[in-house]
Amino acid sequence: MSLAPRAVLVHRRTEYEELLARHGTHGQAAFFLSSRGRSIDEVARRHEDTRQALREVAAAVPLTWRSSRVERADLDRFLFAPEDVVVVVGQDGLVANTAKYLSGQPVVGIDTDPGRNPGVLVRHRHADAAALLRAATAAGGRAEELTMVEAVADDTQRLLALNEIYLGPPGHQTARYRLGPDGETAPGEAQASSGVLVGTGTGATGWLRSLWLERGGTMPLPAPCDARLLWFVREAWPSPATGTSRVAGELGRGQGLRLTVESDRVVVFGDGMESDALELTWGQSVRLGIAERSLRLVT
């Protein structure tokens, strides 16, 4: 007998909850903000809107289904199952944070603050949750397959991301490495920079776009479902030992970019999740390219 679907509600701590964690009570948090010319009322209102959205989404789960909740900070320890329907209640970035831990489960994005969030990935309102849950499990349900990027290290460590993967120094130092196409027999160009960013069409609405604009936007940005990535080297430094001839490019399916570390430590993380990063050191290499896995976003 097959298991009934499980609705997994993904959320994160609100700004109000973070203030309480820091200051202890509502009154102390209110005093802290008021002493700086700000009011806690707007923060508290957004907190209540988010809690209300979570309550209504939870109430919309069919009685025959199972349900669970997971907070953003616990995503790397949560075990998603094949029969799960993942409901992200929050901001666009929370969908990206969740994507790397999934393997084909349908994702529904619920916007808790319409008008404040762009709504690129959280496209729906909590009042539509019941219909969206049915659509997520129905045959022929509408969904987009969003391209993801992956990094695979030579020691088999693997990292997935929906928006972008960043490789660079852990602080404000300079990363040293060699960079070139995967499969090239030459060792690649020696570079010194503040890091390398490889992004998808979904990431083209964020960090990737800012770098693209800085470079003049000569390459067309990919769409979220396009099997194409763009990559940029940030602040490459020319010197007698390092070059700047390879600072931007694109990758199609089956193509890869290889980076070989030539400094003490380089971190690799995706979608801003620095707490869940790969760490590479002298001589290690990593390949970046389009992931076989994609994010199935219910539309």
Topology of this protein?
Blueprint: E1 6-11, H1 15-23, H2 26-34, H3 41-60, E2 66-71, E3 84-90, H4 92-99, E4 106-111, H5 129-137, E5 143-153, E6 158-161, E7 164-168, E8 175-181, E9 189-193, E10 195-199, H6 207-214, E11 228-234, E12 248-252, E13 256-261, E14 266-270, E15 278-280, E16 285-298
Parallel strand pairs: 1-2, 1-3, 3-4, 4-16
Antiparallel strand pairs: 5-6, 5-16, 7-10, 7-14, 8-9, 8-13, 10-11, 11-12, 13-16, 14-15
Helix pairs in contact: 1-2
How is this structure best described in words?
This protein is of the alpha+beta class. The protein has helices at residues 15-23, 26-34, 41-60, 92-99, 129-137, 207-214, and strands at residues 6-11, 66-71, 84-90, 106-111, 143-153, 158-161, 164-168, 175-181, 189-193, 195-199, 228-234, 248-252, 256-261, 266-270, 278-280, 285-298. The relative contact order is 0.15. The model has no long low-confidence stretch (mean pLDDT 94).
Low-confidence stretches: none
Structural class: alpha+beta
Oligomer: single chain
Q: How many helical elements?
A: 6
Number of strands: 16
Q: Proportion of β residues? A: 25-35%
Q: What is the alpha-carbon Rg in Å?
A: 21 Å
Name the shape in a single word.
globular
The major beta sheet can be summarized as: 10 strands, mixed
Average of pLDDT: 94
Write down the secondary-structure element order. EHHHEEHEHEEEEEEHEEEEEE
Euclidean distance between termini CA atoms: 29 Å
Helix percent reads 10-25%
Protein name: Inorganic polyphosphate kinase
Organism: Streptomyces anulatus
